[in-house]
Here is the input.
Amino acid sequence: MTVHDALKSTVLFRVGTWLAFAAAVAALAWRRRATPPGAFAISVAISGVVYLLSFGVFGVATDFRYAYWCVLASLAGLIPALLARRSPSDQSRSGPH
Here is the structure.
């Protein structure tokens, strides 16, 4: 529990940090939304944002445990978002046919 207690007051355990991170993942993948990795990254990140924002309306408490899905969705969407940015787009790389 000492590690948890040491990290509890940092930005890692702030809901707003993960909300902003999920929005950044969606923004990162937005230009490649037509590719499967881009679509996955956007879908997962936005689901975390919507889930977290729903607690603003239906909130029971302000515990960090309610942000777990947003944390997981942000991290799960980051890798496909980065892969989508590395892969060439069908429209931008294709030449005349």
The two ends are 62 Å apart (CA to CA).
